[in-house]
Design a protein that fits this description.
The structure is a homodimer. By secondary structure, chain A is α/β, with parallel strands linked by helices. Chain A is 42% helix and 14% strand. Chain A is built from 13 helices and twelve strands. In chain A, the strands form two sheets. The first copy, chain A, has a six-stranded parallel beta sheet, sandwiched between helices. A six-stranded mixed beta sheet of chain A has the order 7-6-8-9-10-12, sandwiched between helices. In chain A, α1 crosses α2, α5 packs across α12 and α10 packs across α11. The two termini of chain A are 48 Å apart. The structure holds a DNA duplex.
DNA sequence: CTGAAAGCGCTTACAG
DNA sequence: CTGAAAGCGCTTACAG
């Protein structure tokens, strides 16, 4: 690929024949310079290699390639897209990009799609159904080849509509209906959190469960409660509270739990930032996290280990989820049959459950 | 704008005449349904309104609009782009999208460009010059109308090359050369940090200054040192150390400062996450932040106020910077003369400098 | 092995 | 007020 300042003709100020309005070389530019027809240039440049038919004679092909390289030719994606009805574009919808979990997933998506020659649009929806519709419409208006939703509602109602439009898509982070998704094995993650707290002797537990429409919170909570149940430890309904996925959501939820009077000895929070908010409230209540109350978060964001009281958490492979979701979409675009993937989480014990026992 | 599931013909399974290969209505679809020529439809749909010439008779215009609405027509951007050589696309380069500062700025850019009917591509460069070239090339291959760089090196060398390519661009967050930029008034921000620490009586100061190629770190440090100088307080060179902009960078830098032996009573860190890393090292050294050592960060990320020891910091208008940068680029695309903008920061005092004095 | 033609879905002067 | 034509930069069967 030609690169900025790599000494191709583009930067030398030479006027190219049959350049586009911006002065960029076109297929025609290369064709004239090579003394062949544009269709020959197109065939040569699009030929992927391999045995069998050749797009042109060896010498012609080499000459064309050399000239294309020299003038810094790159095909006009509007022309290609118009002709082939393939845009090599992917639309990605997330609740919020400032959420490091989603930003990390998106980085994985972006990197992986780039290796296929695809570019991505991202947009925030704030988990608002109206915004989801609006943003989906914007993205479809751009004629993306496919979409990746990181903001699926577990009921999948909106996704049914999108599927009805014929747009291939996959889900990431959250599952919904029977649509192909790449998620963390959230049920397992919840179980790991429970087993950790139970193994430390905690029997008085609470869960800050996230939004009721997100499979992440639902599955993590279900896994946690199932493991508690299997161990014969009950968690009252009043001790399982929904919350937003941010720090403030954790503050609110923990306050509600404390308002009950009794303080649980162990709290599972389905998101690290939510856990940080919860820890703040515990601290403000004069409780020492890791000694008076054990807290387990979810995701293992980079900050978790840098906190004054290191946060015990369930590490989810966020970047990997993005990469895999991108691959899954690419396979869908190639009309392959695809199956959902559940990536394995790992418990990372730190001071918020171990107290002074330094890890 | 037609919306998913809004009851237009698109979702009803009706075959549209002259639809594109994906079954979407084209200009021709609308033209046939309205019984007029495609050029008339184009004129009507692109007419912005206003007095003077009309694109068609009132009744024709209304009929066309009604039909376009009903079939859910949205113009094929590849065709429009090919014809007009305008893509309504913007490329955005950032060091890393998982950095909440950049993610917040990008959200501002995305929102603002969307109001102009533009879409954006973002890509990470990790502040790596080779990646900057590669990503710029990818973005230009998409035929964006303009670019926004959030990862400028202060010397501006690479940007000179980009300018030579004729692509309009603006900078955000970091300034460079004489290129139009939207930044925080970082010099002022540094001064605010210094005045705060000086007013609390601190005379033994240190600075964790960020990367040497980023104007943010450079200007914040310069403003800080200038204010110290004006107050007759010297800061030795050995107490001004460069660092990466993340938590680990703060750990390394603070460790280097402490390795000197003497512990400063006040530390200015040019980035909140770097400050969090620095606070971790201080804590590990048995020092209490806010009592033994005062720490001031920069940006006021949402977490700053939720930390166990609330972080005193200089709030920069991150989202607003993104919005303004987008507007600035739009004006450049309209060939207007534009000037750089410096947005005003505000000091937010918290426990990391005030200790027990609750704010 | 290579050329010529048609056409993707638009916009925009130009006629009438 | 409206139509007809040309053409943006490609790709792809089809000839030869």
């Amino acid at each position: 690929m030609a690169v900025v300042g790599d000494g191709t003709d583009r930067t030398s100020g030479v006027e190219l024949p049959f350049a586009d309005p911006a002065g960029r070389p076109t297929l025609r530019t290369v064709a004239e310079l090579a003394g062949v027809h544009v269709s020959t240039v197109s065939r040569v440049l699009n030929h992927v290699g391999g045995p069998g038919v050749r797009p042109a004679s060896r010498t012609t092909s080499e000459r064309i390639r050399r000239i294309a390289e020299r003038v810094g030719y790159s095909p006009n994606p509007h022309a290609t897209g118009l002709r082939t009805s393939r845009s090599h574009l992917v639309g990605v919808l997330v609740p919020r990009l400032v959420d490091i979990v989603l930003a990390t997933i998106y980085e994985g998506i972006e990197e992986a799609t780039a290796t296929y020659g695809f570019s991505t649009f991202v947009a925030n929806t704030g988990d608002d159904p109206a915004a989801q519709r609006r943003r989906t419409e914007m993205v479809l208006a751009r004629r993306v080849d496919g979409m990746i939703f990181g903001d699926a509602y577990v009921d999948g109602g909106f996704l049914d509509e999108v599927a009805g439009r014929g747009v291939p898509f996959v889900l990431v982070s959250r599952r919904a209906g029977a649509y192909p998704s790449v998620t963390c094995d959230d049920v397992l993650g919840g179980r790991l959190a429970a087993e950790h707290l139970l193994s430390l002797g905690h029997r008085d537990l609470a869960v800050i469960a996230g939004e009721p429409y997100a499979s992440t919170g639902i599955d993590r909570t279900a896994g946690f409660l199932a493991a508690c149940d299997a161990a014969g430890v009950g968690v009252p309904d009043s001790r399982v509270v929904h919350s937003r996925f941010d720090t403030e959501g954790g503050r609110e939820a923990m306050s509600r739990i404390l308002a009950d009077g009794a303080v649980p000895t162990g709290v599972f929070v389905v998101n690290d930032f939510t856990a940080i908010g919860a820890m703040g409230v515990l601290r403000d209540a004069g409780l020492v996290v890791g000694r008076d109350v054990a807290v387990v978060g979810f995701n293992d964001v980079p900050l978790a280990g840098s906190l004054p009281v290191g946060l015990t958490t369930v590490r989810s492979p966020m970047h990997e989820m993005g990469v895999r979701a991108a691959h899954l979409l690419m396979r869908r675009l190639a009309s392959e049959e695809v199956a959902s993937e559940r990536l394995v989480p790992v418990l990372v014990p730190r001071a918020s459950t171990l107290g002074d026992r330094r890890v």
